[in-house]
Amino acid sequence: MPLLSVMPLAHGLQDDRSAYTLLEPLEPLEPLEPLPMASGATSSAMPPPPEYARQPVSGPELSGDDRTLPGSNDTDDRPHTADRKSIEDQKTTQREVYENDTALALVPSYSCSHVAEDPEKAPSKVEDVEETDPNVVFWDGDDDPENPYNWPTWRKIVNCALISLLTFITPLASSIFAPGVPDLMREFGSSSPLLASFVVSVYVLGFAAGPLLCAPLSEIYGRTIVYHVFNVGFFCFNIGCALAPSLSSLIVFRFFAGLFGAAPMTNGGGTIADMIRQEKRGAAMASFAIGPLLGPILGPVAGGYMSQDIGWRWAFWLVAILSGVISIVMVLFLRETYAIILLQRKVDKMRKETGNPALRSKLDSGLSPTDYFKRGIYRPLKLLTISPISIVCALYTAIGYGYLYILFTSFTTVFMKYYGFTAGTSGLSFLGMGVGSMFGLVFFSVYSDRYLKSRAARADAAADAANRPREGMKPEYRLVTLPWGAILLTIGLFWYGWSADEGRTHWIVPILGTAVAGFGNLLIFMSLQLYLVDAFSVYAASALAANTVARSLAGAFLPLAGLPMYEALGIGWGNTVLGIISAVMIPVAYAIIRYGQYLRQRFEVKNL
């Protein structure tokens, strides 16, 4: 009958249960032939050693691409390749356990071992020597309360709500004073239509620059401190806008307000991915992503009446007040979610408690903050230049976001010129797109997660029937609503353009057209945002930063061409041009669904 063996995991550990692994040996091997003994040596009969189930092995540091597993019982003599897995894979394997076998491990809180669901399918490769190093710190098992995945639901809701609210306020500032632009141009003595458009869009240009700073900073110092610092900058520069003595100073303040306002849009998706597992991420991402779409839509509604009654400067005072309040609340209640930072804090605490300076985080990259910052700035640009799937997603999102701001440039003119709206009521024309976006939000948040789970279940069942490995929840499953959004956006553009042209229909008709366009635009935006989060995982902040840079550039510069286009072609034919481009993008949406996985795997961006 096999015996139960207790073996220490590593030298130098305290003699307690946390330092031992309980193993169930397999059937004993045949006795080995005794080795020749040196002269004068004696030998005694020893029982044959049992063969133990696969386990992590402590040993000397290994190097090179091919490493041989000490004590391996594989039947071939080929070395085992130690391919370093991604951090997300390490997180995944940390959750895998022997469910159908009695081999269990009791490991110290600062060690981590890889085990497989099925011992028969246990990998024969060494995942990483660090996984067997007792000085490597990771989560204390699958239920570690310090892991943001295991936080209470209320804490996740608080974090998501704060990030979503901040992500609503910063885009709100991009357009809240748009109805007051004629008043400020008169106050500053300028009649340039280009400057009138640029004073609005320069804020979005700041959105393009901000991610290049806040994305790498968040990966060095954590998400929370970046939110706090950038919130202070956003607050201060909006006060500068409210007190601006000239048009040029207002443009400068607007740019830096946009730069510091980019933090939630860049890091928000990463924060949500830190806390919420993939299969439950759709609803949370929907609440987060509604801000960049709904904020610019609702801004003119409030800004129109303020500019009419109390002046355009109060639009900036309102933004400063809102940002100041949310900043204080975030300091009190927002908690850090980034695993690398949380594990480093755990390492620092354990070093003090144990006096062991050799302890280190499993996710420690070994880079200095300077090198990490350089890589963090370089990473989004790298994704935008050599990752085909990232480039396609960025261009697609940029078109939709650029269309959003092009339409904004026409609403005030169309509804004041053809329908007799005042400066205050003209802001209400933006509500059509806002209502459409809200319906899109509800639809996506309900449908996306359900489809992801059901589609993955069907794929796994088919894989089991064909005796193939399961692929799990592929990021491409998130894209099911992308072509629907492209179709609805195209319909909405034609609808709005020709119903509003020369005011030939009742004002509600073009507003309904903008609602359809808003519904479609949200589906496009949400599908691609969540796809990037799922596809790039631990680098979600950098992937979203790359996407934010592209769409912000489009939102900053495309509206500059909007007014000249409408003046030359009219509202009807101008929106026809936009609709044709949107229609061309419909087959691109299906192509992303079909070839997205191939592009990710064939052109994988390594050494990010």
Automatic annotation (TrEMBL):
One GO term describing the cellular component: membrane
Keyword Membrane recorded: yes
Pfam families for this protein: MFS_1
Topology of the protein relative to the lipid bilayer: Multi-pass membrane protein
Positions of transmembrane segments: 157-181, 193-213, 225-245, 251-270, 282-302, 314-343, 383-408, 428-448, 477-498, 504-524, 531-550, 570-593
Chief location category: membrane
Keyword Transmembrane tagged: yes
Domain Major facilitator superfamily (MFS) profile, first and last residues per copy: 159-600
One of the record's GO molecular function terms: transmembrane transporter activity
Positions of the UniProt region annotated as Disordered: 30-97
Biased composition (Basic and acidic residues): 75-97
Family according to the record: Belongs to the major facilitator superfamily.
Name the record gives this protein: Efflux pump radE like protein
Organism: Verticillium longisporum
Highest classification ranks of the organism: Eukaryota, Fungi, Dikarya, Ascomycota, Pezizomycotina
